[in-house]
Design brief:
Layout: E1 2-7, E2 13-19, H1 22-27, E3 36-40, H2 51-57, E4 62-67, H3 83-94, E5 100-105, H4 107-119, E6 124-130, H5 146-152, H6 154-164, H7 172-182, H8 187-193, H9 200-209, E7 214-218, H10 223-232, E8 237-240, H11 248-251, H12 253-269
Parallel strand pairs: 3-4, 3-5, 5-6, 6-7, 7-8
Antiparallel strand pairs: 1-2, 2-4
Helix pairs in contact: 2-12, 3-4, 5-6, 6-7
């Protein structure tokens, strides 16, 4: 696994984790899978959470994971925390690639959908949306708004948020590192990412119009949405991780990696 960076059209340096067979593909282009897998993390989280996926899936595929602006080891500028700019960042990240299976988790799933809305799906061989509300019924319930709790006590709220990502407890140094990383972004910018004016129907329209293979992987909180999506968009593949936390690919990496491999194989045969 290696790290590189690129500069966006508005001058921000974004970091990318990369693994797999890119170099071997150049030597033996006919002997390896031509699909590329690109991963996008959720709100304020780093690309490094996809470490298990990069290492396992990199044995067969060219695999990349983006640190969005303000996250991981990317720059944290004062601007650009809108759906449009983040989708543009994703477009520029994917620009050198082709035949991509794009995997977006949580906010990253919505950013992947907005990328499709703004730039089309020509580069995509398939799309994987991981544990995100994508506009189907029912509407997720909520109590005290998360953004309100962030403004009241950011550190405590972030600590609770990070711990709640995992069903299986993670080491304290890892939790502390994720909280520190989440605080690199300013409070106002982190809230801005969660305050999109786009309605739920926006995401639903994009999902239903997406013509390539689609896999929706969720925990029980979105199980009803998954079943409705399968009914309303025939051909959608769904998978429910009953015992995992929101970061289900961390809690159950072997199962998730096998699921992505099977999906990628079906896309390649298409």
């Amino acid at each position: 696994m290696s790290r590189r960076s690129f500069r966006t059209s508005d001058g921000v340096k974004l970091s990318v984790l990369e693994a797999g067979v890119a170099a071997e593909r150049q030597k033996n282009p006919d002997k390896l899978d031509k699909l590329q897998l690109a991963f996008v993390p959720g709100w304020c989280m780093p690309a490094a959470l996809w470490r298990n996926q990069l290492l396992a899936l990199g044995a067969r595929y060219h695999v990349l994971a983006l640190d969005p602006r303000g996250q991981g080891q990317s720059d944290a500028p004062a601007r650009g925390y809108t759906a449009e700019r983040r989708a543009t960042d994703l477009h520029e990240f994917l620009q050198p690639l082709s035949n991509v299976v794009l995997v977006g988790w949580s906010l990253g799933a919505l950013e992947a959908l907005h990328y499709v809305h703004m730039f089309g799906a020509a580069k995509l061989a398939g799309l994987v949306l991981v544990d995100s509300s994508i506009g189907e019924e029912p509407v997720p319930s909520s109590s005290v708004p998360f953004t309100q709790r962030l403004r009241q006590n950011r550190v405590k709220t972030l600590e609770g948020f990070v711990r709640a990502l995992f069903a299986k407890p993670r080491p304290k140094p890892e939790i502390d590192s994720l909280v520190r990383g989440a605080r690199r972004m300013s409070l106002d910018n982190s809230v801005a990412l969660l305050s999109s004016p786009l309605p739920r129907e926006h995401w639903k329209r994009i999902v239903h119009a997406f013509a390539e293979p689609l896999l929706y992987v969720v925990t029980p909180q979105f199980a009803a949405q998954a079943r409705n999506l399968k009914e309303n968009r025939p051909g959608t593949q769904i998978e429910i991780f009953e015992r995992a936390g929101h970061a289900l690919f961390v809690d159950e990496p072997a199962r998730f990696n096998a699921l992505i491999t099977t999906f990628a194989e079906s896309v390649a045969r298409k």
